[in-house]
Amino acid sequence: MNILDRFRLDGKVAVVTGGTKGLGKAMAEGLAAAGAQIAVISRHGDEAGAVAAELSAAKGQACRGYACDVTQPDQVDALIPQTLMDFGQIDILINNAGINLRGAIDELSVDEFLRVQALNVTGPWLMCRAVAPHMKERRSGRVINMGSTLSIIALADRTPYATSKGAVLQMTRALALEWAPYNITVNAMLPGPFATEMNLPLKQDPDTYAAFVAKIPLGRWGELEEIQGLAVFLASDASSFVTGAGIAIDGGWTAH
User: Fold this and answer.
1) Residue 147 near residue 188, CB atoms below 8 Å
2) What was the pLDDT predicted at 141?
3) Has residue 237 been placed in a domain?
4) Is 217 inside any structural domain?
5) d(CA 229, CA 126)
6) Could you tell me if 146 and 197 are in contact, meaning their C-beta atoms sit under 8 angstroms apart?
7) Sheet with 92-95, edge to edge strand ranges
8) Which of 24, 57, 159, 160 is 20 to 30 Å from the Cα of 112, by its Cα?
């Protein structure tokens, strides 16, 4: 097979949580451009449907939107059978939905801390658990969890987020070992600062933005489309011998 053909996703079905904006939408667009059909997941079904329709029109793939709060086991357990009924299979799962609450530990509530863990950690765990029987039966699958540079380094005033993203990386490693006998790969992407809605408060503060850029050897934040290449690689046959990895995409920040 030609090496470029190994990056194609024709005939594959990808589930992307948090797929209506930011990195999630960018990855959905990238996978659709490579030939995948996309199930766009969001708590807001109207937004998911709109993005799915946009992808179908632009990329020519059959895409659908679904409303699901990935922190709720009953909703996740209903989502996966419905997706399988609509598409017939799930080849790729991207656990992208997440939030970030910033603040000193003594200024944050327990509920705020638990809210971040619920969406960033419990959500991916529930989604992985729900697709497990299908992928194990087919002995095939690609799972991509969204970690962060804060999976491996830390910043002050980020205890909820850094804790959650460290957990995502360890979940990825453990699940990669668990699912290796079934030919299911599990990897984590570790993005640095990208111009997402979540990061707008940082980018709009000139001093904070300058402090971040000073740590990035490439001297800038990432553009949304720059996440697509790594996502397509990890979702495709080109990454067939890659599992349990946490791959930084951060302009060199964590190389320090």
Assistant:
1) yes
2) 98
3) yes
4) no
5) 26
6) no
7) 64-67, 37-42, 13-17, 92-95, 141-146, 184-191, 246-249
8) 24
DSSP annotation of 224 reads: G
The pLDDT, as a whole number, for residue 87 is: 98
One-letter amino acid identity for 136? K
Catalytic residue among 66, 161, 182, 209: 161
Structure tokens at 112: 């705020």
pLDDT at 34 (0 to 100):
97
Domain that holds residue 150: 3-194+226-245
66 catalytically annotated: no
pLDDT of residue 11: 97
Q: For the chain, which ranges sit under pLDDT 50? A: none
Give the CATH number, domain containing residue 117.
3.40.50.720
Establish if 216 belongs to a structural domain: no
Q: Rounded to an integer, what distance in angstroms lies between the CA atom of residue 14 and that of residue 62?
A: 11
Q: What DSSP string describes 12-48?
A: -EEEEETTTSHHHHHHHHHHHHTT-EEEEEES-HHHH
Residue 201 inside a domain? The answer is no
Residue range 214-230, pLDDT digits in tens: 999 999 999 999 999 99
End-to-end CA separation in angstroms for the chain = 38
Signed CA dihedral, 131, 133, 136, 138: sign only: negative
pLDDT of residue 190: 98
CA-to-CA distance for 247 and 250, rounded, in angstroms?
9
For 208, phi then psi, to 5°, come to -65, -45
Give the number of domains in the chain: 1
